[in-house]
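Thread: quick sanity check before group meeting

JM: Hey all, I'm pulling together slides for Thursday and realized we never actually wrote out the predicted structure for the chain we discussed last week. Dropping the sequence here so it's in one place. If anyone has concerns about the input, flag it before I start.
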Amino acid sequence: MIALIDIKQLKYFSTIVEEGQITRAAKKLHMAQPPLSQSLKQLEETLGITLLDRKGKKLELTEAGKIFYQRTKHFLHQLDEMILEVQETSSGLRGTLSIGCVKSCFYYLPKTLRNFHDKFPNVKIHLREGDTFLISEFLQNRDIEVGIVRLPIGSDEYETIQLPSDPYVAVLPKSWNYERHSIRMRDMKEIPLLLLHRVSGKGQYEMVVNECQHHGFKPTVVCECPDVTILFSLVAAGVGATIVPKSAVSTFQLPNITMLEIEDSSIQAEAAIIFQKNRYLSKSATNFLEMLKSELVHL
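JM (edit): ok, ran it. Output follows.
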């Protein structure tokens, strides 16, 4: 029975009730009176009940008609809201935007997220963190639409937007009272190091170790971890030093640590925005990418 009831019939019925007469309702709907009367008759026949009592030119709802009218108004209101929500979601004005970000890349996000929220306040942002390997998995599983990762990715299945290169710096415990404002690679030969290491695959860890070997020594790595904030906490506690992208230190300004430029190192941390090739991107994701690319010009 439900399939036989046309939404147009419900709108016609609602208008008839609100106008109280077929004539006035037809005028409001900009249609002739006979097809409007026929629509009401078909609706009542489909339901097998009388919805309106005809008292001369005036129409009054029956008890069943009152219930049906209330439900109809509620349904039509929900339908309008659903259509509006779908249209606004399609246009990027509401919905959910899912983003994944490596913690050491979070530097690139706060300003863009603030501006994005200001412009699209009805879009909920779902932010997930992890190393490059985990962010890639989130993309493959469609848990997120956009990822911000450290390179290399180890796969060519992603579209990439290169982010500005970022020099590596040394981060030491403040309690060590290191007197210089910079450090050389060979000065870290005897220093216990805490290094970022992916859950799987090669990345920053291998780059730093190779740089140490290039300067003639094998680093003393006492801890490997994929979370840069955990490394900073360990450095602050005096466990050792770390070598990380400079932007990560700027983002997570923790007490009891000292950042030093590395005088004789040329290695740069590379980062990129990634999303899957040949996959539909929501309008919210497209809006976010355009906004982020615009912000990068000013970095």
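AS: nice. Residues 63-90 form the longest helix (28 residues). Residues 89 and 183 are 51 Å apart (CA to CA).
JM: adding both to the slides.
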